[in-house]
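---------- Forwarded message ----------

FYI, see the SGNH hydrolase-type esterase domain-containing protein record below. Original note from H. follows.
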Amino acid sequence: MNSLVDQIVLFGDSITQFSFNPDLHGWGAYIADAYQRKFDVMNRGFSGYNTDWALPILRQLLPTTEDQKKSTNRIRLITIFFGANDASLPFAYQHVPITRYTENLSEMFNMIQNPNSKFYNPDAKIILITQPPVNEVQWKKRCDDNGDRMNRTAEVAKAYAEAAREIAGQHQVPVCDLWTELMQIAGLEAVNGKEEGVEVTSKTCYAEEKDYKRDLSEFLLDGLHLNSNGNKLLAQVLLKTIDAYYPELSAEAVDLHLPIWRDVPQTNYEESLQYKTSN
């Protein structure tokens, strides 16, 4: 099939791979629904992967500058969502030291943003998604059930989320801050500079007021991966992040491909049924 529609690419680990799971009301499916007949939403999630392994994959996924000239579509937005596996403890197979983790994220950004990169793509906007917090009670149960050592902690997850935010800021990449959203919902993180544990009266995030004072287990399937509530929250926060930083890519701002059926002429309709491609 010819690809005539511009793309949103979801690039990440298992939380991205599972984002189209109907049983979990996956966040990627929410995004695809919001952009029906506007953009093709491409799931490029790789369960268990870290940023070391993601780099050679991204080099294959991104079109070169020469390929872009010949393509009938463009990548309009790419989400980069790694960290949950990088932040596993040093004895774990998936662990990537935090310094190399941020270097890898920086290299991903530069592949798209740097005019000297063979993958330079000024049309492709980037959003970094921070990993969710680890709910140690849930995750320990999963590890125990599988006969594994406890291989992730809340403290390390926080450090990697902070490092991801910092490197994104250096590259002027907007952040969809899932870690902070969930921590503020649970009342475990300061809000607008206030101390932890205080009643939430104002917020820096996008969650609805009704979502506050809820336990992390209400949003996490196993202490790390998202359940239906977590997927719905991430979809909402990502759409609002797009609205805030890339309003031209807002689902409401992007035109439908092809006319609504009532507007199709009864005769001589072929011209009105032509896709408008990027090139």
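H. also flagged this: The radius of gyration is 20 Å.
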